[in-house]
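step=encode ok
step=design start
structure_in=
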């Protein structure tokens, strides 16, 4: 039902952060903390049982079996990135948030997370240092993701824009950072099709169409549907 609390899953292996996130979420009647995982183990069954509305995924997770042998000076983000992609495959309705301390230190990481399927990025260190204020900040970020008005930090957006401009210069025949399905949806959208018409053309559900449009807006860093249509037509996409 619409008024039921939104279910939040956390995938994190730092005990202190798990407690902080859990406590923060439990202070918001609109949100419900359904549990946490420390890695990929039991991921599919958890998603099937709890159907989370939002998954916060720590991208800096250790891979299975690494334990204390991992070198702290070498960061491998593949485990967190794999989990992001897997959630997108198993639970398409779940909004996936890349949750990390490393976006500023590893400039390619935001794009990698978005390319794997993250809908939003929350940098743990961006919030206030005082816990109560940080708790309020985290809840506001999660609610922004749920309500589709989340906007990435200006410095991350600028970095992604710079990377995208470099990519376009080197790959002029690949103008947009979208998946094939997203390009199909964009073409229909630019041609003036409604969500229902797009769903019928592509043989998918209307909810999936809306999800694709939401992801397209995030990838293109646009806020409104008309901006997406305008950008697509500017690039010669669609026949509108």
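sequence_out=
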């Amino acid at each position: 039902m619409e008024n039921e609390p939104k279910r939040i899953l956390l995938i994190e292996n730092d005990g202190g952060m798990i407690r902080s996130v859990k406590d923060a979420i439990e202070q918001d009647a609109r949100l419900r903390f359904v549990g946490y995982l420390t890695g990929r183990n039991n991921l599919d069954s958890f998603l099937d049982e709890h159907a989370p509305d939002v998954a916060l995924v720590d991208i800096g997770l250790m891979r299975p079996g690494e334990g204390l042998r991992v070198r702290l000076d070498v960061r491998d983000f593949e485990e967190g990135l794999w989990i992001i992609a897997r959630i997108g495959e198993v639970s398409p309705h779940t909004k996936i948030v890349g949750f990390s301390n490393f976006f500023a230190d590893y400039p390619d990481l935001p794009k990698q997370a978005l390319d794997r399927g993250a809908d939003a990025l929350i940098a743990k260190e961006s919030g206030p240092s005082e816990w109560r204020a940080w708790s309020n900040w985290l809840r506001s970020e999660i609610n922004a993701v749920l309500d589709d008005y989340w906007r990435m930090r200006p410095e991350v957006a600028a970095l992604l824009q710079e990377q995208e401009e470099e990519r376009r210069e080197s790959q002029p025949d690949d103008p947009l950072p979208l998946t094939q399905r997203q390009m199909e949806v964009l073409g229909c959208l630019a041609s003036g099709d409604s969500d229902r018409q797009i769903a019928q053309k592509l043989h998918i559900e209307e909810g999936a169409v809306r999800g694709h449009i939401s992801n397209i807006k995030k990838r293109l860093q646009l806020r409104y549907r008309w901006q997406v249509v305008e950008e697509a037509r500017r690039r010669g996409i669609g026949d509108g």
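step=design ok
step=annotate ok -> The first strand starts at residue 6 and ends at 11.
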